[in-house]
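Let's practice the habit of predicting before peeking. Look at the sequence and jot down your guess about where helices and strands might fall. Then scroll down.
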Amino acid sequence: MNAAHDSAFAREIFAVMTVGTQDNEVVLETSRLLLRPWRVAEAVVQRELWTERDPRVPPHRRIDADGHPTVAELEESIRTNQLWSTGLLAIERKASRDVIGYCGLVDNGRGSAGEPELAFELLRQVWCQGYATEASLAVLEWARSSEYERLWATVWDWNTASRRVLAKVGFTETERKEVDAVHGTTLFTTRRL
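Done guessing? Here is the structure:
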């Protein structure tokens, strides 16, 4: 990745989900989904997520004018065991064996110590099918069994679909908000486990 994207990418998300199975990899299973570490060949799915992001999302979270991050850069990120292969687990549909997004826990320094953030993002083609809720519930159960006491999540005020998912899995909005004149208001939500 270019230096600006690389540092923004690293600052934005720092993985905290790294225990649970062989080689300390987390693998979670639901009736329809498998949440597991990313594979190098799945970098194309990550790139698609970047390209599908709403134009209201800040520039450092979208493909830049030079086309970064590229598939090759995302492949390298997976290969070197960076963010995508540890903290944000790939969501694979068990029936079709395709990867449709990610869900996991991250610590980007915006919350209290010991309280990671729930994060999820799915390809547009699978929206409104309950996958984000199902994956989030699996991650919440993992967090509970890992003895976290509380989680938090942020969401743009204009992102009504993600706000609905967070409400379904028990998050409530707090008084804390970050207002950005260009990109909208970031709402903070929390959930006790």
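How did you do? Residues 1-22 have pLDDT under 50 and may be disordered.
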